[in-house]
Amino acid sequence: MKKFILLIAVLLFANVNVNVSVNKTDISEGNEVIFTITAEGKNVKMPDIAQIGPYQVQGSAKSENVTIINGKMNTQISRSYIFYPLKNITIPSFKVIVDGKTFYTKPIKITVHKLEKTNDKNYDLTLSLDKNESFLGEGKILTIKFSQNIDANPQSIQIQRPALQDFLINQISSKTFIKNNYKITKYKFLIIPQKSGIFEIGPILANIGILQKENPFDDPFFSAAFIRYKRIVSNEVKLKVKPIPQNSIWGDFNITLSADKKKALANTPVHITLKISGCGDFYDMKNFKLNIKNATIYEKKPILKTKILNNILCGVYQKEFTVLSPKDINLSPVSLLEFNRKLKEVKSNPLYIKIENSMINLPKTENFTHPVKIKTKIVYKTNYILILIAFVLGVLITLLLSLSLYKIKFPKKDIYEQIKKADNKELFQLLLPFAGNKKIDEILKKLEANIYKGEKNKIDKKEIIEIIKSL
Q1: What is the C-alpha separation between 41 and 76, in angstroms, rounded?
Q2: Which of 61, 247, 277, 467 is 20 to 30 A from residue 399's alpha carbon, by CA?
Q3: Nearest to 167 by CA among 142, 130, 204
Q4: Distance of alpha carbon 114 from alpha carbon 124, whole angstroms
């Protein structure tokens, strides 16, 4: 019985072929490994591989061949994956499904040899750090120095960029000069660690294209040339990154709060700006919020502008808010914890804005800046006045009864006509008293974006009138 089962297994593997291969099993650090899976059958399902061990797959390729033998169609599929291991690794087993059956590839061991710095009389590649210790978020200067003998005449020079997964990288400068018969180029980078620990940077490679000439017949007519590439390896540098206190950010900052006005009408827009300036790890800055009770707050995305001054990342973080409040705005200072070898809480100024009673229902006047004083005068012509009042009341009562029969609520004076004629700013003011209604709030957001962000959201005034009628 066991022999029968073994025979079936052998037959199954004979009908279905799943193989794995690599271009090299013994490589130098930084070289690529091309890992290929090949399967053959009528229906082949390959694995999706994005990472091999701790290394991301940098590229993939797929090929497919279809053969028909004696009327039977068979498909052979190959899929290759490229990755760059830095240490010894075993490529794990992967699942391949062929014609409904599951197969597993064989693991493959890859040996990675550490690169040694190249000692060459014509070319040199060197890495250096301004300091070998840093705090989390504190930038350090990494310099790549490439030297070549001025008598050397390379056709091309390709210098590898350092692979720094846990750092933010900003190139500061590049400078070329001649010294002691060598042409020297220095590239400076500001690297900002985003993780604590001990990091090995490099080695990196430079590929030098050198023109080689061949003349098999010792005759200029038959001369030929081709480019041969020479690899130059740099040294390795280590950086120790120390942690900083929790919820803090590396740097030296200043915070301010400002508003476009000191007084405002109830539920009218007040624009508040939060500004953080200074030097430090701006890329780790949190997204700040405002806490104002009973207010509607619209916020824009923060704007970050940075530049490198004296080899330090400096800049400005700015975030704008639009606040609609029925009451006085009394904003407490905004704060953050900064760390610059000492922990310090940095606070903004407080902000107070006086909110006056809403003036939406007052008569509309041009350039209205002061409350309207209405003087009243009593005239004792009672007979005519009483007749006129009675007539007006009769008309109003008739109109109200007529509107109630059609189940239409009596609108505010001329508001529908005002909505039809209003531009974005006027419409925003007209709708503010209705804030709190979900549909009206959505329209207010669109109007806010049109007015203050320059967007062109379409506003349906007929829809607005229908919403107000239903309130």
Answers
A1: 7
A2: 467
A3: 142
A4: 18
Helix axes 438-452, 424-431, angle to 10 degrees: 150
Residue span of the structural domain in which 438 resides: 403-470
Distance, CA of 26 to CA of 113 (rounded, Å): 8
Report yes or no: 331 and 355 within 8 Å, Cβ to Cβ. Answer: no
Q: Name the CA dihedral angle for 388, 392, 398, 402, rounded to a multiple of 10 degrees.
A: 160
The backbone region for 71, taken as left when phi is positive above 0, alpha when psi lies in -120 to 50, beta otherwise, is left
Q: What are phi and psi of 21, to 5 degrees?
A: -155, 160
Same domain, 130 and 223: yes
- Residue 45 β-bridge partners: 97
Q: Token digits for 444? A: 């207010």
Last residue of a domain, one of 242, 259, 274: 242
In the chain, the number of structural domains is: 4
pLDDT tens-place values along the chain, 471 residues long: 443 333 333 333 334 579 999 999 999 876 789 999 999 888 889 999 999 988 889 888 888 888 777 777 778 889 999 998 888 999 999 999 998 899 999 999 999 988 889 999 999 999 999 999 999 999 999 999 999 999 988 888 999 888 788 999 999 999 999 999 999 999 999 999 999 999 999 888 898 988 876 555 555 555 556 677 788 999 999 999 999 999 999 999 999 999 999 999 999 999 999 999 999 999 999 899 998 988 999 999 999 999 999 889 999 999 999 999 999 999 999 999 999 999 999 999 999 999 997 444 344 433 434 443 434 343 444 445 555 555 656 556 555 544 444 333 444 557 888 888 888 888 888 887 787 788 888 898 888 888 877 888 989 988 888 888 887
Separation CA 327–CA 266 (nearest Å): 7
Q: DSSP secondary-structure letter at 437?
A: B
Q: What is the DSSP string of 91-150?
A: E---EEEETTEEEEPPPEEEEEEPP-----SSEEEEEEES-SEEETT--EEEEEEEEEET
> Does 345 lie in the same domain as 266?
yes
Q: What is the DSSP letter of 47?
A: -
> Do 315 and 221 share a domain, yes or no?
no
